[in-house]
Amino acid sequence: MRARILEILRENRGRPVSGEELARALGLSRTSVWKHVTALRRAGYPIEGSPRRGYVLESVPDLLTAEEIRSGLATEVLGRQVEVRQSVSSTNDLAKERARRGAPEGLVVVAEEQTAGRGRLGRAWASPPGVGLWMSVLLRPPLPAPEVARLTLAAAVAVAEAVRAVSDVPCGIKWPNDVVAGGRKLCGILTEIEADWERVHFVVVGIGVNVNTPAAAFPPEIRESATSIRIEQGRPAPRAALARAILAGLEHAYRETLAGRFDGVLARWRALSVTLGRPVRILPVAEGQPALAGVAEDVDGDGALLLRLPDGRLHRVLAGEVSLRPADT
Ligand code: BTX
């Protein structure tokens, strides 16, 4: 309900909307409208006015509240339940905990800060407070486990398109799942799955975007390799609007995937890729494996990279880290 109130106030930016109008539009009593407005003020929204004179939303602050994310959210399933925390160890862990207790598909967990944000293979993901979008989405796809990798590609497409929609940053996708700008990492995606032989119980797609992170907030060891929307375009971007755009794009790509139209998602992935067509080195994920060099020719339906080796053979790479040569772009 608070999300709807915000939506109406936002549509009427600058024009007061009376308590009565809101009450009528939402089928509430004026007292409960007033209670919701009071709660929104407490959450940090600068809402001026009174029930009689009308309420005005003075400005839209960059708050990452459930109301803010849900208000104007153009999805049916993703985000129908949104849980926002100030600080968690990892939004993926919280989403998995909720999933094991039966949380519905579409649950979104967001935190202002992660104290133990995770990347792939046990790597750490720096998640400083107040400046990023650290978000996990719970899905229960009726897909065989090997096809779940497709959802990571779908998420990368959703993030890259959303970043382009809410900012001026021309980002691209670096195989397998990084969204990069100017050769630096803007976003990482960690997809985790719980399944048995018969079926997938759930999938948690964890998305970390450096939105308004100043360079100094990155740990020194990644300052050269990481970037944020704010660093790239020289001004901040609205985090909740980015979250909404990602959720809408992901829901669309998810539906396409389930409906057997993953080809369309893959085509968009290819169009956004900064890896394909370039000479690359694949750094192994496990010790003892050799690094591979070749030309990144394509990705297949499982998200594997098809690498053309110098001897002409086509090699399928399922996991690894890409280094683009000669200079990382
Ligand atoms: P990854 O393994 O591809 O990338 C991790 C590597 O990226 C680190 O080893 C480090 O070099 C670099 N790195 C760490 N933090 C950042 C950062 N903030 N920006 C750019 N580079 C960084 C990528 O794994 C997957 C990341 C998923 C993060 C989301 S946030 C919400 C959810 N919760 C959670 O714990 N993880 C996911």
From TrEMBL:
Q: Which UniProt keywords apply?
A: ATP-binding, Biotin, DNA-binding, Ligase, Nucleotide-binding, Repressor, Transcription, Transcription regulation
* Top EC group: ligase
Residues forming the BPL/LPL catalytic domain are: 67-258
Its UniProt entry gives the catalysed reaction(s) as: biotin + L-lysyl-[protein] + ATP = N(6)-biotinyl-L-lysyl-[protein] + AMP + diphosphate + H(+)
Q: Name one GO cellular component term.
A: cytoplasm
Asked whether the UniProt record includes Translocase among its keywords, one would answer no
One annotated GO molecular function is: DNA binding
Positions of biotin binding: S90, T91, N92, Q114, R118, G119, R120, K185
What EC number is given for this enzyme? 6.3.4.15
Per the database entry, where does the chain bind DNA?
A: 19-38
GO annotation, biological process: protein lipoylation; regulation of DNA-templated transcription
As for family, the record states:
Belongs to the biotin--protein ligase family.
> In UniProt terms, what function does this protein have?
Acts both as a biotin--[acetyl-CoA-carboxylase] ligase and a repressor.
Q: Which HAMAP family match?
A: Bifunct_BirA
Which protein are we looking at?
A: Bifunctional ligase/repressor BirA
